[in-house]
């Protein structure tokens, strides 16, 4: 087998392997459709490269057209998948203009005014513009992570590969009068090798991003309560510790609100555990909506919840608890029998000094106990300061 054929089969083989890998990833992560689009992109580029060397029975000209259509669709899929992966709105119009313009130029210089050099320039400049469009989408993202930054750089390199490399080779070696010797030219050799390298680097970056997605999801599952959608006890304690440390460094106030659903056991006994689950989910939704992104909300027990509120003193935390209490007790819970009214009791404590989460939770829990003991459906505050640690002086003997 000659070297030319080996090089010709290099990109199709790489493309099919990468396409199969993304397809397997999508099979196990159906909720990430961009993986299926990536698989389609790489799989479509394989026949594009093969049809550059092998001619179909429909003729040489139409074979080249189909090859470049495969390249164009593959480039559209790859660009759209990268943009969608990072939560950006896919710029369909921009993608269509860039790739459509390149394909239109190819068709013009194929059928109307045949010129191989301009066909090469038209397609490459279209793909170069598309690469810049992807880079622009990634550049505007805030708090770019490592994979976004790497893909941004690779998009710029891809744009240079399609434009600067093409121009340099054509200027250095002259235009292409025909396909004779084209596939042995420095342009085609550098195109194949650079495409293989960039395809591998982009795929590895996207594989890394997919792996990070899985790790992030697994981490979230270990810290999230599946019924309420709030943090579980472990997740809440970790998040609360970070917020307490941050507030201690800035000298900001912070308060803790504990809540407990009233008569929850009676609800379960009378209407079943499904009714209890609905009550928990409904309360959690209201708590999550009220907390927003300013604090940490978690389900720390069966029907017990906690909210840590940075930048909040005792008075503002009490207002927060009263608002939740009134909102929850005034509305009906979907799925519960008509006439069933749910209420909750609250205990509130404000941090003093550099008080840790444990003592703060104990004081809030004592206030919650007072609310439960004094009729429920109420908010009680902890005015007590944490006890100071007493260190006796060592007595000396004269």
Automatic annotation (TrEMBL):
Source superkingdom: Bacteria
One Pfam family named in its UniProt record: GGDEF
Top-level class of the enzyme under EC nomenclature: transferase
The UniProt record lists the keyword Transmembrane: yes
Protein name as catalogued: diguanylate cyclase
Keywords in alphabetical order: Membrane, Nucleotidyltransferase, Transferase, Transmembrane, Transmembrane helix
SMART domains membership: GGDEF (SM00267)
Record EC number: 2.7.7.65
Domain GGDEF: from-to ranges: 252-384
Coiled coil start-end: none
Keyword Transferase belongs to the record: yes
Membrane-spanning segments: 6-28, 35-54, 60-83, 90-111, 117-138, 150-172, 192-214
GO function terms (MF aspect): diguanylate cyclase activity
Record field: catalytic activity: 2 GTP = 3',3'-c-di-GMP + 2 diphosphate
């Amino acid at each position: 087998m000659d070297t030319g054929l080996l090089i010709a089969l290099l990109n199709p083989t790489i493309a099919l392997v990468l396409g199969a890998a993304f397809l397997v990833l999508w099979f196990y992560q159906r909720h990430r459709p961009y993986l299926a689009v990536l698989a389609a992109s790489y799989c479509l580029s394989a026949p594009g490269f093969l049809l550059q060397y092998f001619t179909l029975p429909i003729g040489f000209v139409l074979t080249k057209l189909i090859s470049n259509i495969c390249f164009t669709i593959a480039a559209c899929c790859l660009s759209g998948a990268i943009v969608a992966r990072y939560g950006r709105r896919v710029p369909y119009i921009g993608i269509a203009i860039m790739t459509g313009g390149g394909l239109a130029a190819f068709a013009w210089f194929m059928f109307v005014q045949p010129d191989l050099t301009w066909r090469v320039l038209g397609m490459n400049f279209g793909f170069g513009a598309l690469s810049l469009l992807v880079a622009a989408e990634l550049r505007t993202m805030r708090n770019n992570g490592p994979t976004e930054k790497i893909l941004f750089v690779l998009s710029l390199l891809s744009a240079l590969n399609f434009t600067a490399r093409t121009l340099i080779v054509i200027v250095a070696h002259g235009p292409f009068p025909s396909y004779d010797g084209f596939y042995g030219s420095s342009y085609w050799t550098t195109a194949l090798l650079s495409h293989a390298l960039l395809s591998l680097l982009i795929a590895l970056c996207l594989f890394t991003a997919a792996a990070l997605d899985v790790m992030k999801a697994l981490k979230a599952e270990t810290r999230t309560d599946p019924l309420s959608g709030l943090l579980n006890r472990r997740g809440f304690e970790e998040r609360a510790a970070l917020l307490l440390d941050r507030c201690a460094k800035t000298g900001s106030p912070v308060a803790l609100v504990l809540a407990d659903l009233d008569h929850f056991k009676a609800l379960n006994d009378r209407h079943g555990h499904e009714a209890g689950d609905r009550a928990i989910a409904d309360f959690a939704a209201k708590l999550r909506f009220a907390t927003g992104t300013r604090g940490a909300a978690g389900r720390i027990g069966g029907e017990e919840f906690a909210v840590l509120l940075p930048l909040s003193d005792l008075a503002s935390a009490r207002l927060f608890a009263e608002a939740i209490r009134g909102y929850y007790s005034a509305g009906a819970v979907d799925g519960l029998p008509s006439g069933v009214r749910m209420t909750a009791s609250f205990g509130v404590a404000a941090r003093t000094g550099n008080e840790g989460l444990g003592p703060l939770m104990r004081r809030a829990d004592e206030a919650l106990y007072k609310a439960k003991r004094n009729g429920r459906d109420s908010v009680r505050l902890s005015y007590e300061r944490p006890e100071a640690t007493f260190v006796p002086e060592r007595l000396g003997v004269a």
